[in-house]
Amino acid sequence: xxxxxxxxxxxxxxxxxxxxxxxxxxxxxxxxxxxxxxxxxxxxxxxxxxxxxxxxxxxxxxxxxxxxxxxxxxxxxxxxxxxxxxxxxxxxxxxxxxxxxxxxxxxxxxxxxxxxxxxxxxxxxxxxxxxxxxxxxxxxxxxxxxxxxxxxxxxxxxxxxxxxxxxxxxxxxxxxxxxxxxxxxxxxxxxxxxxxxxxxxxxxxxxxxxxxxxxxxxxxxxxxxxxxxxxxxxxxxxxxxxxxxxxxxxxxxxxxxxxxxxxxxxxxxxxxxxxxxxxxxxxxxxxxxxxxxxxxxxxx
Length: 300
Description:
31% of the residues lie in helices and 29% in strands. The chain has one helix at residues 207-299, and strands at residues 7-12, 17-20, 26-27, 29-34, 39-42, 47-49, 52-56, 61-64, 70-72, 74-78, 84-88, 93-94, 97-100, 106-110, 115-116, 120-123, 145-147, 152-153, 158-159, 164-165, 170-171, 176-177, 180-181, 186-189, 194-198.
């Protein structure tokens, strides 16, 4: 495994796998493993500051996806039990998160594009037993914590065993999440946390800048809409003009056809008159010849 400045790696045991993405930067960070068949995979981030992973036991998996952000003060401790999973999706950002997974057979899943503030605590188990007096059985067994994609977690929030947040949710500062709140696009707040506002989303941009950006985009959309309307108006006017021209041309063609029909009719009438005239001339000539012949006979 490649050595990284600012990162101390100390594995003991058998069949442990540590995979760290190339070109990572670390500062005051350490990975300590004591056990067998454990897997640690660290994706590429902008920088890791004070990353602390301590694993004792067997068959534990810790995966942090690639991120374009800083990951600061991420402290993952699992020193009890076996078969533990802590998996973080891509583009995770963090100011400070402390994770305790101490009983075994427990999971913590954090989705893509989550933004965590600082002072955040996450627990999949209580670490000590709460015992029912009648059954003499521990009743506070470990429960998984599941945080969906695009969750913004405010300062000093605590996630207890069995907790969770839905997609595109905001968890208000100082809240304590004690159960799975899976509804999306909500603000979660209080002790214990509950849905306090619905139909929201969040953005990492500061509110004033976001509104300015939104105003600019709306202005561009409105200008584009206005241009489209003007273009449509021009096209409509052009279409109207084209339609008028087509109507005029149609009328001219119809007029021309009518005029041509009249000309043809007049030509036919003239031809008929010419034929009558010719017959008249022929008849007249015939009569003249007969008269001349008659006079010649009488004279003789």
